Structure formats: structure tokens, C-alpha cells
């Protein structure tokens, strides 16, 4: 191989590492309905998407693992913005593949009793295409950091998939505010 070929290959590889992961469910698709066990303010809670949509839009955000640094900071950010989401008529629900006992603690400590978190089953992770994969394509057993805003009619109106937690609250809040203005 020449140096030019190696440099081109290295540049292409670097681009794949820095490119954000995109969720497969596109804007406009119908969100798969589901029910999941979880926790709200430290107590067991059952979340049903179709019931939450009766009240208004749903911010469904997937995060990799409770009590990891990025996931805790993201939960804090959603907790701080809870009043703004409520003012826009939206329900926020965090999802990971953590067990309910872990979610009970996380809902109090990281979510500050402000919103519910629920346990995503393997089928739900597949339905929303949020399986975090290793470079070889195998599953890590965790979820990608992906946020969906689902309109009251069950259609996805916004998708943001990026392992950096910092823009998820800002982008989902802007989307639910836009929905409120269009009503």
C-alpha cells in the first residue's frame, strides 16, 4: 500500500468514528406501541405509550446505562427541564435495559423524582432500532442514546441519535414546543 492509500483509508475510518449514529425509525413513521415496567419517584410504575399519547406528545429517550456519567447528566438535564416539557404538554420517559430495581434508584437520584424511566425489553430495543453495537456489529447489550418525539397521533416528529447527551433536551424541547404552536 502506498502512503496515499493508507492516508485515504485512515481518513475514511476517522469519518466513520466521528459520524453520529442515526436511528432507523424516520420522522413520519408510526412509533411502535409498547408497555414497559419502570419507576417514577422511586416507586414501581407501568408505562404504556398509547395511554401517554392520549395526554399529548411523548419524549421517548433511550440512554445506555443508569448511573453512568453521561446518562446521569442527561437525566439531570431532563429533570431541570421538566416544567418546560409539561408547559408544552409533553410527557418525558427515559428508557434503558436496566432492571426495575436499578430504575427505582435512578428515578429518584438522577431523575430527581421528576419523570419516569422504564426498562426496554430486547423486542422494544429492536423495534426502535436502538441496539448499541460494537464495531464488529455485535450487540453491547446497551441502548444507543436516541431521543424520539412522538406526536399525539403516534407519528415520530423528531429523532436525534448521538452518544453526546448535551443536545437531547434542547432538541426535544424545541420539537414539542413546535408541536404546541401548530395545535
Automatic annotation (TrEMBL):
Specify the Thioredoxin domain's residue ranges.
25-181
**Highest taxon of source:** Bacteria
EC number in record: 1.11.1.24
SUPFAM superfamilies xref list: Thioredoxin-like
Reply yes or no: does the keyword Disulfide bond apply: yes
Output the InterPro entries linked to this UniProt entry.
Answer: AhpC/TSA, Peroxiredoxin_BCP/PrxQ, Thioredoxin-like_sf, Thioredoxin_domain
Per UniProt, the enzyme's principal EC class comes to: oxidoreductase
Tagged with keyword Disulfide bond: yes
Q: Which UniProt keywords apply?
A: Antioxidant, Disulfide bond, Oxidoreductase, Peroxidase, Redox-active center, Signal
Among Pfam families, the record links this protein to:
AhpC-TSA (PF00578)
Q: Which reaction does it catalyse?
A: a hydroperoxide + [thioredoxin]-dithiol = an alcohol + [thioredoxin]-disulfide + H2O
From the UniProt annotation, give the residues forming the signal peptide. Answer: 1-23
The similarity comment for this entry is:
Belongs to the peroxiredoxin family. BCP/PrxQ subfamily.
- Function description: Thiol-specific peroxidase that catalyzes the reduction of hydrogen peroxide and organic hydroperoxides to water and alcohols, respectively. Plays a role in cell protection against oxidative stress by detoxifying peroxides and as sensor of hydrogen peroxide-mediated signaling events.
- What is the name attached to this protein's record? thioredoxin-dependent peroxiredoxin
The organism is Novosphingobium jiangmenense
Amino acid at each position: 500500500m502506498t502512503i496515499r492509500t493508507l492516508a485515504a483509508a485512515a481518513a475514511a475510518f476517522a469519518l466513520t468514528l466521528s459520524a453520529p449514529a442515526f436511528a432507523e425509525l424516520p420522522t413520519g413513521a408510526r412509533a411502535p406501541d409498547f408497555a414497559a415496567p419502570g419507576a417514577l419517584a422511586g416507586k414501581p410504575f407501568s408505562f404504556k405509550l398509547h395511554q401517554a399519547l392520549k395526554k399529548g406528545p411523548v419524549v421517548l429517550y433511550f440512554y445506555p446505562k443508569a448511573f453512568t456519567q453521561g446518562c446521569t447528566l442527561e437525566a439531570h438535564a431532563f429533570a431541570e427541564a421538566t416544567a418546560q416539557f409539561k408547559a408544552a404538554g409533553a410527557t418525558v420517559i427515559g428508557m434503558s435495559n436496566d432492571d426495575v430495581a436499578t430504575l427505582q434508584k435512578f428515578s429518584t437520584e438522577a431523575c430527581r423524582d421528576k419523570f419516569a424511566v422504564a426498562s426496554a425489553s430486547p423486542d422494544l430495543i429492536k423495534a426502535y432500532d436502538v441496539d448499541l453495537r460494537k464495531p464488529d456489529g455485535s450487540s453491547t447489550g446497551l441502548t444507543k442514546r436516541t431521543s424520539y418525539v412522538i406526536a399525539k397521533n403516534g407519528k415520530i416528529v423528531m429523532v436525534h441519535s448521538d452518544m453526546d447527551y448535551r443536545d437531547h433536551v434542547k432538541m426535544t424541547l424545541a420539537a414539542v414546543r413546535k408541536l404546541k404552536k401548530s395545535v
